[in-house]
């Protein structure tokens, strides 16, 4: 396909530069590609509350697939329009099993109405304002889109391997590059499932979508679309499945792709 109907892109490490900024070139490229009939859709591990800062840059439909597919977020209206959460009983079993297998593990949750965390949960990249703090029953009082676990006492890679061995197929364990953080969505909930559902609603086929990513949590999406793009700084597993390797995120690789469509 010479020109796709949609470009779906990850944010951190892909569309955004390493410092988390969106370059002026990328902003212009999103606008120009949309004017040429190719909108850009954000598909990210970020929770809804981390997207408002990009509301002025979103193009096309004005929404984002976020939380690794758990939420659809309207950046214009600043509200979650759809969510796919954990079964509370299954999630409670997963948490119980992880507490037994990983002493010192702590938990947080992402919900449509914000984040909740246990008192002991701490993460350097988090914004602490507005969190619900309490035990699991308190922080999971409303449906949970993403369950987060941390155990700083363990090596990050060892921790993720241990989590995977405990949770099995009861959750989807996604790795977005956040070191030492286990990000878990409900079974079958991935960037690919969120993107596929949205595209079906819009009458867009997988073959008509191009996608860009950099980390293993992007793999389901990259395998689903018609053409997969990896930025040069991507994880080796992502580079291995890419149809096209773009310039790095710091060199505006996705912007160059969008510019080529104009």
UniProtKB/TrEMBL annotation:
Keyword Hydrolase: yes
Gene Ontology CC terms: cytosol
Record InterPro entries: HAD-like_sf, HAD-SF_hydro_IIB, HAD_sf
The keyword Hydrolase belongs to this UniProt entry's keyword annotation: yes
Alphabetical UniProt keywords: Hydrolase
Record Pfam families: Hydrolase_3 (PF08282)
GO-annotated molecular function: magnesium ion binding; phosphatase activity
NCBIfam families: HAD-SF-IIB (TIGR01484)
Protein name, per record: HAD family hydrolase
Native organism taxonomy: Bacteria, Bacillati, Actinomycetota, Actinomycetes, Propionibacteriales
């Amino acid at each position: 396909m010479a020109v796709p109907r949609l470009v779906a892109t990850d944010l951190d490490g892909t569309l955004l530069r390493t410092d988390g900024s969106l370059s002026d070139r990328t902003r212009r490229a999103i606008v120009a590609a949309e004017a040429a009939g190719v909108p850009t859709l954000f598909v990210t591990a970020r929770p809804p509350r981390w997207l408002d800062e990009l509301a002025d840059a979103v193009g096309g439909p004005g929404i984002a697939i976020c939380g690794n597919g758990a939420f659809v977020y309207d950046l214009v209206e600043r509200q979650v329009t759809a969510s796919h959460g954990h079964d509370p009983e299954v999630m409670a079993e997963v948490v119980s099993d992880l507490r037994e297998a990983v002493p010192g593990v702590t938990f947080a949750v992402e919900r449509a109405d914000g984040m909740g965390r246990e008192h002991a949960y701490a993460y350097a990249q988090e914004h602490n304002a507005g969190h619900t703090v309490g035990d699991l029953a308190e922080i999971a009082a409303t449906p949970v889109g993403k369950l987060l676990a941390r155990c700083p006492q363990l090596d990050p890679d060892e921790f993720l391997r241990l989590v995977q061995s405990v949770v099995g197929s009861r959750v989807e364990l996604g790795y977005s590059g956040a070191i030492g953080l286990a990000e878990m969505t409900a079974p079958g909930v991935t960037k690919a499932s969120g993107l596929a559902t949205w595209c079906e609603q819009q009458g867009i086929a997988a073959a008509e979508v191009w996608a860009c990513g950099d980390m293993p949590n992007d793999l389901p999406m990259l395998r689903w679309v018609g053409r997969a793009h990896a930025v040069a700084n991507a994880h080796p597993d992502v580079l291995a499945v890419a149809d096209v390797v773009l310039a790095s995120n710091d060199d505006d690789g996705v912007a160059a792709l969008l510019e080529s469509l104009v």
